[in-house]
Amino acid sequence: MREQVGRVLVVDDDHAVRDVVRRYLERAGYEVLLAGDGETALRSYAEHRPDLVVLDLMLPGIGGRDVCRAVREHGSVPVVVLTALGEESDRVAGLELGADDYVVKPFSPRELVLRVTSVLRRATHAPPVMQESVVDGSLVLDPAARRCTLDGVELALTTREFDLLAHLMRNPGRAFTRAELLESVWGWNFGDQSTVTVHMRRLREKIEPRPDRPHRISTVWGVGYRYDPEAG
């Protein structure tokens, strides 16, 4: 029997979608929990504490956005949004809630499984290199414990935010394009680059005293972003 690699809560009001996602995830070795509405999703989340949530935003009763906010309030469990809302504004709205990834319907079940695996791998395994803490003044990132503190206070970073910050802090002074960050942090050489933009904005809100005038994460116009150490 294939070893389980995690417990996934799939939340979607479409029975056919839930069934397809369940079958593909189980085939990949995951334990799968199902919910067809927001209330059931929150109850299942509280009872079973899944390792990841696949979440449709359009749900009856308690909406998907409210479910995502509630999940975020209780920890850093990764969330992959799965929805028919494919406009850029909708994608940005989902990412602003703290989602780690965004898959638009109609979708490839195989691609969804790959994205779930990618997010979970980064959330549950420390990187194979650079295990030592990275320190920049009052900002301390501990890859092994997957903790980041600022002025001694732990930051509530999502999986992608943590990985993005770790990548930038390990490469100070280097300018990265959005495409390079998408490949290095998300593990994809394709996809919507606005994902990087939204995560960068959220990260700045958490580590910069003035997010509108960042001094650690600089925008390199025409290129992308660069991390400038405060202590150097």
Protein traits:
globular, 232 residues, transcription, phosphorelay response regulator activity, Rossmann fold, 20% strand, transcription regulation, Arc Repressor Mutant, subunit A, 4-stranded antiparallel β-sheet, CheY-like_superfamily, single chain, 5-stranded parallel β-sheet, two-component regulatory system, alpha/beta
Would you count the extended β strands for me?
Answer: 12
Q: What do we call the CATH homologous superfamily of the largest domain?
A: Response regulator
Any idea of the CATH class of the largest domain? Alpha Beta
- Unreliably modeled segments: none
**Structural class estimated from helices and strands:** alpha/beta
From the N-terminal CA to the C-terminal CA, the straight-line distance is: 52 Å
List the helices and strands in order: EHEHEHEHEHEEEEHEHHEE
Percentage beta strand: 15-25%
Q: Largest sheet at a glance?
A: 5 strands, parallel
Helix content: 40-55%
What Rg, in angstroms, do the CA atoms define?
Answer: 18 Å
The total count of helices amounts to 8
CATH architecture of the largest domain: 3-Layer(aba) Sandwich
Kindly report the average pLDDT value. 86
CATH fold call of the largest domain:
Rossmann fold
Number of domains: 2
Shape: globular
The side-by-side strand order for the widest beta sheet comes to 2-1-3-4-5
Q: Can you characterise this structure?
A:
- This protein has 232 residues and is α/β, with parallel strands linked by helices.
- It has two domains: 118 residues, Rossmann fold (3-Layer(aba) Sandwich); 94 residues, Winged helix-like DNA-binding domain superfamily/Winged helix DNA-binding domain (Arc Repressor Mutant, subunit A).
- The protein is built from eight helices and twelve strands.
- The strands form three sheets. A five-stranded parallel sheet has the order 2-1-3-4-5, sandwiched between helices. It has a four-stranded antiparallel sheet with strand order 6-7-8-9, covered by helices on one side.
- Helix 2 runs parallel beside helix 3, helix 6 crosses helix 7 and helix 6 packs across helix 8.
- The longest helix is centred in the middle third of the chain and has 16 residues.
- It is globular and about 50 Å long.
